[in-house]
Amino acid sequence: IADSIETAVTGQSMDGVLAIGGCDKNMPGAMIAMARMNVPAIFVYGGTIKPGKYDGQDLTVVSSFEAVGQFSAGKIDEDTLTNIERNACPGAGSCGGMFTANTMSSSFEAMGMSLAYSSTMAAEDEEKAVSAEESARVLVEAVRKQILPSDIITRKSIENAIAVIMAVGGSTNATLHFLAIAHTAGIPLALDDFETIRAKVPVLCDLKPSGRYVATDLHQAGGIPQVMKMLLSHGLIHGDCMTITGETIAERLANIPYVETPHEPIAGHPVIRAWDNPMYAQGHLAILKGNLAENGSVAKITGVRNPVITGPARVFESEEECLKSILANQINAGDVLVIRYEGPKGGPGMREMLAPTAAIIGAGLGDTVGLITDGRFSGGTYGMVVGHVAPEAFVGGNIALVHEGDSITIDAPARLLQINVPDAELVKRRSTWQAPAPRYTRGVLAKYAKLVSSSHLGAVTDIGLG
Question: Rounded to 5 degrees, what are φ and ψ at 296?
């Protein structure tokens, strides 16, 4: 996506770029292209979907995936499953919770590359069209003033974006995407930087997947500006960062009033919590390391009743294998599922494991079953899950050496991911391990697998080319 935008814009010598995006990959792809080209640019989010409704409950697309697990476990009947599927997505827009699309839109607003409030507007509402028109006018002014992405995308503004991601309970995919954006912009950023910010920033917003509400509720509560005003007042974001309008973050926020009365769609449960009563005292995206992830892995630790699990490994060579076992009720409480060869090179492409993780939740095993993978997760995923394991299996990471029944520990508070097997045994296993043949030997996926870097480096494709 970044390559396509870069090719079109540079080939036509465009003076400015307005990129419209609305899903996991086209949003960071557009931002990577903006950073590469460094011509005046603004990001316009296509907008979030409104929640579906069934049986008095708000639904999102993840509700459908979880319903499949509930149905397989005998917890709901087929009519209920059908009704959930028919009502989950009532119109246009990106997935409605604080999943990857809304995480990236929120973080781009926080970074200053899009307009205030634009990241939480519903796709079908009139204000979204008005905001898009205003974005075009702002871009024209940015071209005149030569406000460049390099003026906006800085180390400080990326730290602002990460702080907001933590405060809203955003997607694990944001770690991967911002590592790639920072790499493209020539800004040093590592997984450990996310951990540093996580330790300082509380989760302030009660948003799905692990909370109650969706992005349109956050919009009604005052949107990302309200969250940023709280963070700025406590010294957790940088107010001197420039935005696409030419004003600083502090100047932008100074013109936005506080919402004095908390928005509570459910009485007593505000969408944005008070500072002294957060959802969680620290951020939710923990960086786990250990002998199963020497270069790191990413866990979302909100909504988890048991943040430590040690159990027997159930090993699967693909997402499909794992899902088949879950739906056949072959997974037991206490198991730790291992899905490997789904990393950047092994996939190739690092698929998101939404189907198996949602099926686990739907089957009622979310608090008792762990899952680790060198692939990714959907922004709608929650539970005891750890992704982005690096090194990945395809290049010989220790996740490739796990055997069925091995004891594995996931310890979120200690930020540990470990296989409880003696080092000598791992050395022995490595001596007989062989890398699998590439899944593709020609075409775009073969080229991608050849060039792509590790997930802890952002899974970018241009490391070492200069």
Answer: 115, 165
Q: What is the dihedral of CA 344, 348, 349, 350, to 10 degrees?
A: -60
Q: Do residues 7 and 112 both lie within one domain?
A: yes
Peptide bond into 209 cis (omega under 30): yes
CA 149 from chain center: how many Å? 22
Q: Which among 157, 378, 454, 455 is annotated as catalytic?
A: 378
pTM above the 0.85 mark? yes
d(CA 195, CA 286): 6
Q: Say if residue 361 is in the same domain as residue 309.
A: yes
CA count, 13 A, side-chain hemisphere, 121: 21
In a domain, 175, yes or no: yes
Q: What is the pLDDT of residue 466?
A: 65
Same domain, residue pair 429 and 359: yes
- Answer yes or no: do 297 and 327 share one domain: yes
Question: Which structural domain range is residue 446 located in?
Answer: 285-457
The percent of residues in the chain predicted with pLDDT above 70, rounded, is 100
In this structure, the answer to whether residues 67 and 216 fall within a common structural domain is: no
Does 171 qualify as catalytic in the annotation?
A: no
DSSP 287: E
How far apart CA 150 and CA 97 sit, in angstroms, is 30
CA distance 85 to 81: 6
pLDDT at 380: 78
What is d(CA 200, CA 236) in angstroms, rounded to the nearest whole number? 8
Q: What is the distance between the alpha carbons of residues 365 and 333, in angstroms, rounded to a whole number?
A: 6
